[in-house]
Amino acid sequence: MYSDHLLIKSMKKLLFIINICLCFGNETPLIFFPQVSSNYFSSGSINHMSQSGLSTITTLGLGAKKSEGNLLVSGLFQFSSAQNLNKRSVYFNPDLNIEMHRKYIDSDISWFESSDLKIEYSKDSFSIFFGKFNTIWGSGKSSLFLSNNIPSFPHMGFTWDLTSELTLDYLVGSLTSNIIDSTKSALYKNIGSRNNYYTRSIVAHRLVWKPIESISFKAMESVIFGNRGIDIHYLLPFVPFWSMQHYTGDLDNVQMCGEINWNLNENWKVFGSLFIDEWRPEWTFNKNNRNWFGWQIGGIGNSIFTANDRLRFEHTWTDHRIYRHRFRINDSYSFQYSLGFWAGPHAEESYLSYLLPIKGYNIYSYISKVKRGELTDQMLEGQYQNIYYDRFSNTLESRFVASIVCTKGFLNDKILLKIGGEWIDWKNAGFDPLQSTISGKDVSKFSILISVKAITPISFN
């Protein structure tokens, strides 16, 4: 309770600063960004697991931004309607993360919505923030540690430039466990019912060291714990969480990640990440080991073949033992999406993309080859008993996607038109890693994409 009081007190101080800034400053405009988009997929793309059948996603949104001195406030609300969107497919889709997916009454069309808000106050070498948004730590298209794979989540924290070479990032946030709290179920049953979930929280810190301009090293650590909102033990940003969770009884889920970024020259950047969930060094080279790892290597090239083009390649590999914990409440998930790599544990992906701007058009193409295996309760039990599991030895799902999309902007990019196509070869589509006995089907199809998005700023001085 004392720690909750500290958090509330800190937020009150920050809100006081914000109110002062907003009350006494009106030199910059308040800008709204109304927007609408509609996406048509002729064969459904990866939005469903059928051989044919169109799919559509239409979104209405309203964004806003206001800056005043050292304060920046920005937000976005979106409401989407989808036709022929399979709920299970969104957990194997790198572009979708849905908090709540419901159908309209007496209709097969579903809807979902999202809201983001970030309030940030910066001064000199220190900035503090809070809101509901995604924080991304990592250079990959989908980071192993913190990515945009999950729906935005409430959190607060700070960034502090300790020296010209060292930067400390820290955050504390609230996740969604999707584990029903039966002790409170009676409170939400009367005319209809709703589920109440146990709380799940995350605290993370990151130290960035940049000894020279071309190289940076990043050390990250997080702890995930449940059934309590804020834990005072983890409000100490300079103390290793690995040590602190031993102090509290070794109940929580501590994860670590190291990353190196190297700018080879003005055109090329390469990076590598190693995610460590658990490790027993003396067993490192044994067949039966405790290498609960994930790793990622990749590179980004700019202006390689022509001016302003962009080439990206990366390979991501995750062990079946990461992200999940012996106590389910401590899983590294929110709304059943992993906090890191979009395909989750027991998965790997090879990815290549290329962006070519030419005569006012942006041509974007990519190839993705991904597969994932089962994640049964028996495997979870076995990993804590040091029982060897042969990777991808049982049921698995694999998918190959080759896509090319051309984008053209009109009216100073207030209207964006996209036209493209993609080839999809999907094995065991509909597979559920948690229930591997539920098998899917093989699908090969070509899907055409037509997308229109309109957005315009409206300024109030």
Which structural class is indicated by helix and strand composition?
mainly beta
Distance between the termini: 43 Å
How would you describe the shape? globular
Q: How large is the share of residues in beta strands? A: over 45%
What do we call the CATH homologous superfamily?
Capsule assembly protein Wzi
Indicate the CATH topology: Porin
Helix content: under 10%
State the total count of DSSP E strands: 24
Number of domains: 1
Number of DSSP helical runs: 3
Largest sheet: 18 strands, antiparallel, barrel
Uncertain parts: 1-7
Report the C-alpha radius of gyration, rounded: 23 Å
- The average pLDDT value, as a whole number, equals 92
CATH class: Mainly Beta
Summarize the helix and strand pattern as letters: HEEEEEEEEEEEEHEEEEEEEEHEEEE
**Known CATH architecture:** Beta Barrel
Question: Mind explaining what this structure looks like?
Answer:
The chain has 461 residues and is mainly beta. The protein has a single domain (38-51, 117-460), classed as Porin (Beta Barrel). It contains three helices and 24 strands. It has helices at residues 2-24, 241-247, 377-384, and strands at 30-41, 55-68, 71-83, 102-103, 110-123, 126-133, 153-161, 166-180, 189-190, 192-193, 197-212, 215-226, 253-263, 268-278, 292-302, 310-318, 333-334, 337-338, 347-358, 361-373, 396-410, 415-429, 441-455, 458-460. The strands form three sheets. The chain has an 18-stranded antiparallel beta barrel. The radius of gyration is 23 Å and the shape is globular. Residues 1-7 have low confidence and may be disordered.
